[in-house]
Specification:
Blueprint lengths: L18 E2 L2 E2 L8 H175 L18 H17 L11 H6 L3 E2 L5 E2 L7
Antiparallel strand pairs: 1-2, 3-4
Keywords: Coiled coil
Length: about 280
């Protein structure tokens, strides 16, 4: 217990007032040993009290710092707990999603497994039916194949005969074509001979003197048409360049052509003997 500040001035037994009048006086040299002992104990107790107060203040500061640190730590722990709660909620959502995906995957796997088993059963049944069908129809197929092979062989023989006939026809047509070519060559030769004869006949007609019954009029009394004269000259050039170059007919009467004679008229046209001479 902390003594009061005026403990030294108390007027209890064993204490003497140190103040009298206007100032303090020195203690009496005749103080008792008990008073000295008490004074010593009091001083020690004051020192211990000061030390305790200092220790208490230090402890208070330490506790205040610890309280502040604990407050900060508590706030940190609370924030961490909030984050932990959020993470736990996110983790729970993720876990629910993963569980849902696992359930959906398991369901799909079961459905796929069931579908595979059904298809496998269907394939097994189909293979069994195919095998049974093959066993049932094997003999009939062999007969049908043999008949088809026989028919194909007969068709092959018929095709060979038809091919031989076509070869014979082609050879015959080639021979006929050669004969026609020879005939065409003969026709061309006869045509060239006729051309030579016609040219010779024209030369003879050109060199034969012409009898004139009427006297020749004077040139100044004859009206000259230059256009008609030019057309006549062009027609004569055409006749001399190739009037008989027309294509040969299919049937030619060479004897009739040989017996015909040709004459020129005043208009330079070729006519047969039945036409009237002008």
């Amino acid at each position: 217990m902390v003594p009061p500040k005026n403990a030294k001035n108390s007027s209890g037994p064993g204490f003497k007032s140190t103040r009298s009048g206007s100032g303090a006086k020195a203690p009496s040299q005749k103080s008792s040993p008990r008073a000295n002992s008490l004074q010593q104990h009091l001083n020690e107790w004051v020192q211990k009290t000061k030390k305790l107060e200092e220790t208490l203040n230090t402890e208070r500061k330490i506790r205040e710092n610890e309280r502040k640190e604990n407050t900060r730590n508590y706030e940190k722990v609370q924030s961490l707990l909030c984050e932990k709660g959020q993470l736990n909620s996110q983790l729970a959502k993720m876990r629910e999603g993963i569980l849902g995906e696992r359930a959906a995957t398991a369901k799909k796997y079961r459905e796929a497994q069931e579908t595979f088993e059904k298809r496998q059963e269907e394939r097994t049944k189909a293979e069994a039916l195919r095998h049974q069908f093959a066993l049932d129809r094997s003999s009939q197929w062999e007969i049908e194949l043999k008949n088809e092979v026989h028919n194909l062989r007969g068709n092959n023989a018929a095709l060979k005969l038809e091919r031989e006939e076509l070869r014979d026809r082609i050879a015959e047509q080639k021979r006929e074509l050669d004969i026609l070519r020879d005939q065409i060559t003969g026709y061309r030769r006869e045509r060239d001979i006729l051309r030579d004869r016609i040219a010779q006949h024209q030369r003879e007609q050109d060199t034969r003197p012409v009898e004139i019954s009427n006297p020749i009029p004077k040139l100044e009394n004859i009206p000259i048409n230059l256009f008609d004269l030019e057309n006549t000259w062009i027609k004569a050039e055409q006749l001399s360049d190739g009037e008989f170059d027309s294509p040969m007919p299919d049937i030619v009467d060479f004897q009739a052509l040989h017996n015909k004679s040709f004459h020129y008229t005043h208009d330079d046209d070729l006519v047969d003997p039945e036409r009237t001479l002008i």
